[in-house]
Design brief:
With 1012 residues, the protein is of the alpha/beta class. A five-stranded mixed beta sheet has the order 7-6-5-8-9. The protein has a five-stranded mixed beta sheet with strand order 10-11-15-16-17, with helices on both faces. Helix 8 (209-224) packs antiparallel against helix 9 and helix 24 packs antiparallel against helix 26. This is CHAT domain-containing protein.
Length: 1012
């Protein structure tokens, strides 16, 4: 008799194919089919199922399905031992039933279990067995005409191939992995094209869950191909699409599993890119959603983060506990990861011997599992252990093995990492430093340039901090040891070039007031970008940070970095360099020496300086991180910018205290500490000599993020240096370094340098001045945090008299008959700004609130105009008001700024304090502004000093200077008069807190008008 599936209706009409010769499994559930048709059974074989009754068959089939369900549950819980036991039972039942489809399902699932456990050898064996049997079974199915059976085993082939995709990826066979993915997609398309009822619904992937799994596998391929930036973008898209189908009952369990898979992958991608905090958040979500061995796996990553937070003993204990649980479950791959993590922490604690034991235990498991990347990690770990013990030859041997393995894999981030490890060992050994330079320089440049591949600002920042940063920091130390100040200075120049935001040319944000409907981003290049597509987070914007252009060091000298970058491109497959070449120095002014200072934060802060009279003589100085921290401590204590949890009123009161800007002694101490910590002796001496020679020199500064708020003109000039680095409390020692009270302003005019990587447009044509003065903000009281900054103005107020004088000279915009009509308007919104800047304009003066509205990334710093929340823009509304961000400006049709701009608001020059300096300050430069006046900290309003109006004095001075021939010289001269008054009568109304924050970004002579 026949049991199981219905028998074929007709006998085979052809001889037994050669594929089935000698096979014990023919792909049909009952091998006594030959006897059923009266054929010679010898060629087909007869198996135990032939003797089963229908009831016995059904009972065993039900048991097999129940066993499979339990095996899947155990596998999901990462109980590998339990899952393997159940799948072995399932295979026994499949053989008794003579059901190849059931055995293939068990073996393909076993392949997945082995892979997830890190047992890569057995995973491959199981997956390849499935594919071999699939070929034989397909031949038998065609022979017997049982095509329904083919549809049953198709899913097992897909599962097995997905394991092989992962294995091929880990082994560096990316072509094979991509070919398997393409094959799965082709078959999925064919299934969907087949007639109705040809395949079970779950094989038609109605909600795209199977395709999303393939895309997760592609993320792994992208990582292995050296594209962590692309992998990160792709995984974010996958998680978004999974969220859209999470509530569909038919695929809810599959989506939950895929989400866990995608979150784990995102955590891995984030860790590779230095985003440790975000990776920990993903691991925390996974830990909370799982229990047992699954939770233990994710707990390892969390423990490593715990160690970074300082709790090393707790982290070690947590990893040991997790490893014990994983070992009991048979998850050998995770046990190896736990041992490796444990070894890393022990090495950090200085327990080298114990660390090596843990690494070697991990290596034993990786070798047994056939894990090639794991073996490479072992070599790196052993190299670090040997280096920690001073066994340099052994360390280099291990490092070279890791490098060879990385090269063979074709994974350039792995090459970058192993080369960095080798360079670190070579630097610590201290022998043959030129060879170390040959290794390290391309590593640092490649790591720095790759950052621009990330679309997310947060990812770029993390990569720069945790991947590119350590390489560049080590390179700077090596260049100092090799006495190569020129190369170090070029490296500082390139770091300060920053990069350019691009993408604004492709689409623009309509600021006319029409709120677009929600919908997808339009494909046409000339259409406006709808608000819904922009969202409220910078990373969602079409702005993309591109690498800086090629730089030119001086008329006489090319960049030494160019040849190193060519080598980096050859070794690490960097993207092609941009075509533009931009000079890094401004035009010299006859008879006036210009000093160029650029600071870069690379572990320590590094300064390079030179002058336009001698561009090829460069001076570089490392500024110890402790000195920078002390300077920041003093500055933060004195600055009126509110600290976290501090009100604006309390911040102003603190800033005007005796130890800050409220007394001459407090302010002078601040100026001296900043100078001693930030100005090297050779620079101070050269400044003094240049000033003594005649015309006052010009000091142009590009600060690093750590020094963005420094009032450079206020800094005192030391007469001698202290014998050691000063601690924050050594105020008495500070005084011994000064004979008088000379400040930088006394000997030089000061302005800011714009990053050379910011593309610039030509400025607007000359025309009337435009004024945006103290806009009324919807929903905000005049006395609230976003209230009036100028206070109540009347016809007799100095500022209004100044504006009346301007009106007497000619027209201004917006049109007004009296100066009072330009202040506290309700229509000063983005629509009016668009209208004003569409016409010729000589200067734009904004006085109001500036803030950071979203996060630490510059495209979300904003001006607070009179914009209602209903107007389109990239920032989330604040009640009835939507701020106008730098991203709004960059993406809008406002693509031309007047040559001179004033942004007078709270810390409007804070762009330089951002990881990516592209806030409202530099957005105006990119749009054409050649000179921008801004402030380095929060400005107290005139309400802080009753009876005086220092804010009005500031605005008048700025507008007057912008209307003059040389605004930088005029503003610095005005600040010198303020300094003289402060010295004569150090009272609150004359405090530098009102005027020292003022700074000019002067790009008039940079010759950098270029558009990407």
């Amino acid at each position: 008799m026949l049991a199981g599936l219905p028998p074929p209706l007709t006998p085979p009409d052809r001889p037994l194919p050669p594929d089935l010769a000698g096979a014990s499994s023919h792909g049909y559930n009952c091998r006594c089919v030959a006897r059923h048709f009266g054929l010679d059974p010898a060629a087909y074989g007869a198996l135990p199922a032939c003797s089963l009754t229908e009831a016995e068959y059904d009972e065993l089939l039900s048991e097999a399905i129940a066993v499979q369900t339990e095996a899947k549950r155990l596998a999901a819980a990462r109980d590998v031992t339990g899952a393997q036991r159940e799948y072995a039972r399932m295979r026994q039942l499949a053989r008794r039933l003579d059901r190849t489809s059931l055995e293939l399902a068990a073996v393909s699932d076993l392949a997945t279990v082995c892979y997830s456990a890190g047992d890569l050898g057995n995973a491959r064996q199981c997956a390849e067995a499935v594919l071999r049997v699939f070929r034989v079974s397909t031949a038998a199915i065609v022979h017997f005409g049982q095509y329904a059976e083919l549809r049953m085993i198709e899913g097992s082939r897909e599962v097995a191939e997905r394991v092989l995709i992962s294995l091929s990826t880990e082994e560096g066979d990316l072509g094979g992995a991509r070919e398997l993915i393409a094959g799965q997609r082709r078959r999925a398309a064919l299934r969907k094209e087949a007639g109705p009822g040809q395949f079970p619904r779950e094989q038609l992937d109605p909600y795209g869950a199977d395709e999303l799994e393939l895309r997760v596998l592609e993320v792994r391929v992208r990582m292995a191909a050296g594209d962590p930036a692309g992998a990160r973008d792709a995984i974010e898209e996958i998680l978004t699409e999974l969220a859209a189908i999470a509530d569909v009952g038919e695929v809810r369990d599959q989506v939950a599993s895929l989400r866990a898979m995608a979150l784990a992958e995102r955590a891995r991608v984030r860790q590779a890119g230095g985003e440790e905090a975000d990776a920990s958040a993903d691991l925390l979500r996974l830990t909370a959603g799982h229990e047992g061995p699954a939770a233990a796996k994710f707990a390892i990553g969390l423990a490593e983060t715990r160690a970074l937070g300082g709790d090393l003993p707790g982290a070690i204990a947590a990893i040991v506990t997790a490893r014990d649980e994983l070992a009991a479950a048979g998850v050998t791959g995770d046990v190896a990861e736990a041992s490796h993590a444990l070894g890393t922490l022990l090495l950090l604690a200085g327990e080298v011997r114990q660390a090596r034991d843990q690494f070697e235990h991990a290596g034993t498991l990786w070798t047994a599992n056939g894990d090639t990347p794991g073996a490479r990690r072992l070599e790196v770990a052993l190299a670090r252990c040997a280096a920690a013990e001073g066994r340099w030859t052994t360390a280099e041997e291990h490092a070279n093995k890791a490098r060879e393995s990385a090269r063979a894999s074709g994974d350039w981030p792995a090459c970058l990492h192993t080369d960095f490890v080798a360079a670190t060992i070579g630097f610590a050994r201290g022998e043959d430093l030129p060879a170390v330079l040959d290794l390290l320089f391309p590593v640092a440049l490649a790591a720095a340039d790759y950052r621009f591949e990330f679309t997310s600002p947060r990812a770029r920042t993390a990569w720069a901090r945790d991947v590119a940063g350590p390489a560049t920091e080590l390179l700077m130390a090596l260049l100092a040891r090799l006495r190569k100040p020129g190369a170090a200075a070029e490296l500082i120049e390139r770091a300060c070039a920053v990069g350019a935001y691009t993408g604004a040319e492709e689409r623009s944000l309509d600021l006319t007031g029409t709120v677009p409907a929600l919908g997808p981003v339009p494909a046409a290049r000339d259409e406006r970008l709808p608000l819904a597509a922009l969202g409220s987070v910078t990373s969602a914007l079409p702005l993309r940070l591109a690498p800086p252009p090629a730089l030119r060091w001086s008329p006489a000298s090319p960049m030494e970095l160019d040849r190193w970058r060519e080598l980096a491109a050859e070794r690490y497959h960097l993207p092609p360099h941009v075509d533009e070449t931009v000079e890094t120095w401004p035009a010299a002014r006859p008879g006036r020496e210009t000093f160029l200072l650029r600071f870069a934060d690379v572990g320590h802060t590094f300064l390079s300086w030179r002058t336009t009279e001698d561009l090829d003589t460069v001076h570089t100085h490392p500024i110890d991180v402790a000195l920078v921290a002390t300077a920041r401590e003093f500055l933060n204590a004195a600055s009126p910018t509110p600290h976290e949890g501090e009100s604006v009123t309390d911040a102003v009161r603190r800033s005007l205290g005796e130890d800050a800007f409220g007394s001459f002694e407090g302010e002078q101490r601040l100026a001296r500490v900043l100078a001693l910590n930030l100005l090297p002796a050779d620079l101070v001496g050269r400044l003094r000599r240049a000033a003594a020679a005649g015309r006052r020199p010009l000091l142009r500064v590009q600060p690093s993020p750590s020094l963005a708020g420094v009032p450079w003109g206020l800094l005192a000039l030391p007469d001698r240096r202290p014998g050691h680095a000063l601690d924050a409390g050594e105020t008495d020692a500070v005084a011994t370094c000064f004979d008088g009270d000379d400040r930088v302003l006394d000997v030089a005019d000061v302005s800011l340098l714009a990053p050379t990587g910011i593309p610039r447009r030509p400025p607007a044509a000359d025309g009337p001045p435009c004024y945006l003065l103290d806009p009324r903000i919807p929903g905000q009281s005049a006395f609230g945090e976003l209230g009036s900054v100028l206070g109540k103005q009347g016809t007799a107020s100095p500022l209004i008299r100044h504006l009346d004088a301007r009106l007497a000279e000619g027209p201004v915009r917006p049109a007004a008959g009296h100066g009072l009509e330009l202040v506290r308007r309700t229509d000063t919104d983005r629509r009016l700004l668009t209208e004003l800047l569409a016409q010729p304009c000589s200067r734009l003066v904004f006085v109001g609130h500036v803030s950071r509205v979203r996060d630490e990334h510059g495209a979300q710093t904003a001006l607070h105009l009179s914009c209602a929340a209903e107007l389109p823009g990239t920032a989330a509304p604040i009640g009835a008001h939507r701020p106008f961000t730098a991203a709004d400006l960059a993406l809008s049709e406002v693509d031309t700024m007047p040559a001179r701009v004033a942004l007078i608001g709270c810390a409007s020059a804070s762009d330089f304090g951002l990881p990516e300096p592209f806030g409202v300050l530099l957005a105006t430069v990119a749009a054409g502004a050649e000179l921008v006046v801004a402030t380095g900290w929060t400005l107290p309003t005139s309400a802080a000093v009753p009876g005086a109006d220092p804010m009005a004095e500031l605005v008048i001075a700025i507008d007057t200077a912008l209307a003059g021939d040389d605004p930088v010289t005029e503003l610095c001269a005005w600040q010198r008069t303020r300094l003289a008054h402060w010295r004569e009568h150090p009272e609150p109304a004359r405090s530098p807190v009102f005027w020292a924050a003022l700074t000019c970004l002067d790009a008039r002579d940079d010759r950098q008008t270029w558009v990407r």
